[in-house]
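Deliverable D5.2: sample structural annotation.
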Amino acid sequence: MDLTIESKAGYVLSNVAEVVEKILTFVPTKSLFHTASVCALWRECARRVLRKQQKVTWISASGSSGGTGHVLPRTLVEEVENVYLLPKTVLIMADVDAFIQQDSHFLKKKVKKSSSSGKTDELRKLFPIGCDILGIAVPGIVLTPMGSHNNPPQEFEEGEAGFAIMFPNIDGINIRSFHFCKRSFSSTSLEEAGLVNNPNLRVVLLFGYEAFKSGAARFLNQVIEPLSKANILLAGGHIESVTSPEPECCNPGSYGVVGLALSGSKIQSASVLLEQDVNSDKTAEAALQRLKSANIPQHNTLGFMFACVGRGRHHYNSKNNVEADAFRKIFPNIPLFGFFGNGEIGCDKIVTDGYTLTDAENLQHGYSTVVALVHLG
């Protein structure tokens, strides 16, 4: 039987799973859901493609939005439908102006506003139902431009900037957010969040807000103290505010702690602390060079940088981007993300086996930078 070119192509696309699956790897996730409704074969191929998409991706933005709302929300609206994974957990960081705009341009064009005009609802409409979203606002941002892992990271001590890191479902790894205030914090809530009695816990990214309120320092120590006894990497700092999830258990202006707990035997991590005497290109590079000895794989790995607002160009004799440039020189294929905040949490943790944090007081710093690597298998 003589088949035309069109009928041959139709036969292949409706019967050869290997070809269909290969083609669908080039389709963004949102479009993948539409193609899955074509037929049973395409549905199964789409499911297999989604299961294989286990590498982290991100959307980042910077620069003036020209009076049309903050640049990050606008970029998220435009770009989130083009990603090639199904987000399960999303970490969003932006400068404080991103979430105090009076004119909410956030989803004006593509998503109808609900009667609840809260920013949390607006964020959730961008991502799949059930996606775990942690959003925070900070004084300054560190990000890697989207498009490639080896794009040079940039420090934005002021101005519009932000990013959204999207974690898919990864076999053997559990990433979940937590949020404690003085009313919700207890040993039970710590355990429910996976922060204690969890032998698979490997990394905790921890962010305190309203840190200068009376009682905030004591509360943060209560959270850090049990974590300091575990063989984990702890990194983070003091932020301006939480944007998602919105605090519900305490009054506006109350202090609290949010973060991500990363569990799984495949996770590898390491961190270094750049203290106040690290104040030149050479000393910054030497401090970050110590991370190399941890031998963290560079594929599917993220870098995190949590720096004091007192560092940046003012600390390095008016030189811009010193620490981010030093990181890229040593780790050219690892994207870097983070913020300039009001205090830092972390320590040197280079040895990957047999190392235990012992003193919670030594995990909080000022006028320093914490840089961490987190490998997700």
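Annotation notes: The first strand starts at residue 57 and ends at 62. The radius of gyration is 22 Å.
The annotation will be released with the project's public dataset once the embargo ends.
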